[in-house]
């Protein structure tokens, strides 16, 4: 990891995007970035905000709102608004209560039942099933990276002033192996290694909560060694059109609180939300951010 990378690059070259695009918006900053990019390109995106998840700012433009138990109504909205493309952006904190979902008025029953079956799967299985359901009605599902290619992590290299030292490189290797392992089990996308030993794995609570756990362990003196590295990478079976691993300014801030030396992410399959701001925050904190190549499939 010695080459300095300057600009993000997109994951794939896909056919041109035509027609109106809808953003099914969960929590986090990604839906905002996608909406802003579409508007800059002259588009008029429809925001379909997930109730209790989407950021308040998303309600300022052309929008609809559905709860997580009303996903059967999604297809009806897409058809009524003349939508051609759909982007799934942002996270979902809460899975639906199945009985509530079956109340009358929650939309297309066939679509609803297909969505509900998907919610019984792990995250990757869920996303694949949701995408397949949307596509079965003739809509094109796009990845956020296809709309905002400059948020994709660049080719392998260092994107900050600081580089990883020998100890950190060993930590990256250990955490990366762990992240790939839990990813293959559809559990999470991140791990932390300190002193060449994995001390935390990401679960359903997410990266920030995992880093808080590391900070707590340090405060309790259950981790005595200094340094350490956060690694994030896509699951081996990752559906790249949704739920790609992501970092941002908050990731850097939480890595600092956890006492880590840096962050390593998978090149071309990780998103950096607020690329310039994230790199600047890491530089100011004295952390490194490095990108690494995708693990070859066996």
TrEMBL record:
<dbReference type="InterPro" id="IPR010415">
    <property type="entry name" value="LpxI_C"/>
</dbReference>
<dbReference type="InterPro" id="IPR043167">
    <property type="entry name" value="LpxI_C_sf"/>
</dbReference>
<feature type="domain" description="LpxI C-terminal">
    <location>
        <begin position="156"/>
        <end position="289"/>
    </location>
</feature>
<feature type="domain" description="LpxI N-terminal">
    <location>
        <begin position="21"/>
        <end position="151"/>
    </location>
</feature>
<dbReference type="Pfam" id="PF17930">
    <property type="entry name" value="LpxI_N"/>
</dbReference>
<dbReference type="InterPro" id="IPR041255">
    <property type="entry name" value="LpxI_N"/>
</dbReference>
<dbReference type="InterPro" id="IPR053174">
    <property type="entry name" value="LpxI"/>
</dbReference>
<protein>
    <submittedName>
        <fullName>DUF1009 domain-containing protein</fullName>
    </submittedName>
</protein>
<dbReference type="Pfam" id="PF06230">
    <property type="entry name" value="LpxI_C"/>
</dbReference>
